[in-house]
């Protein structure tokens, strides 16, 4: 199945919780710093500054909704 690469800029994220509320299959606020991150199922890189995930393409609409809802434009994705 095709995937999309989802990148969360955790330095920019303000931890508002909208991304996990909008798309809980992909996002969760991290236990480490309260900032958004990609859930373990899809995570390929995680540190305090950035979270990257490779997410099944069928979740793209969900990710797009979170991208559109984020007040600080901290989420982006690309087709891989
Ligand atoms: S919507 Fe944006 S600011 Fe809010 S938790 Fe998600 S990434 Fe962070």
How is this fold's topology laid out?
Blueprint: E1 3-9, H1 18-22, E2 27-29, E3 36-38, E4 43-46, E5 50-56, H2 60-69, E6 75-79
Antiparallel strand pairs: 1-5, 1-6, 2-3, 4-5
This protein binds iron/sulfur cluster.
What does this protein look like?
- The chain is an alpha+beta fold.
- It has a single domain (3-79), classed as Alpha-Beta Plaits.
- Helix content is 19%, strand content 36%.
- It has 2 helices and 6 strands, in the order βαββββαβ.
- The strands form 2 sheets. A 4-stranded antiparallel beta sheet has the order 4-5-1-6, with helices on one face. Strands 2-3 form a two-stranded antiparallel sheet.
- A hairpin with a 3-residue loop joins strand 4 and strand 5 (50-56).
- 29% of the residues are buried.
- Residues 8, 13-19, 36, 69-72, 74-75 line the site of iron/sulfur cluster (SF4).
Number of strands: 6
CATH topology-level name:
Alpha-Beta Plaits
Q: Regarding CATH, which class?
A: Alpha Beta
Average pLDDT rating? 97
Q: Quaternary state, please?
A: single chain
Topology order in helix (H) and strand (E) letters: EHEEEEHE
Rounded to an integer, what's the Rg over CA atoms?
11 Å
Helix content: 10-25%
Low-confidence region ranges:
none
Supply the number of structural domains: 1
**What small molecules does the structure contain?**
iron/sulfur cluster
Q: N- to C-terminal separation? A: 11 Å
The DSSP helix count reads 2
Task: Tell me the fraction of residues in β-strands, as a range.
Answer: 35-45%
Query: Largest sheet, described in full?
Result: 4 strands, antiparallel
Sheet with the most strands: spatial strand order: 4-5-1-6
Structural class: alpha+beta
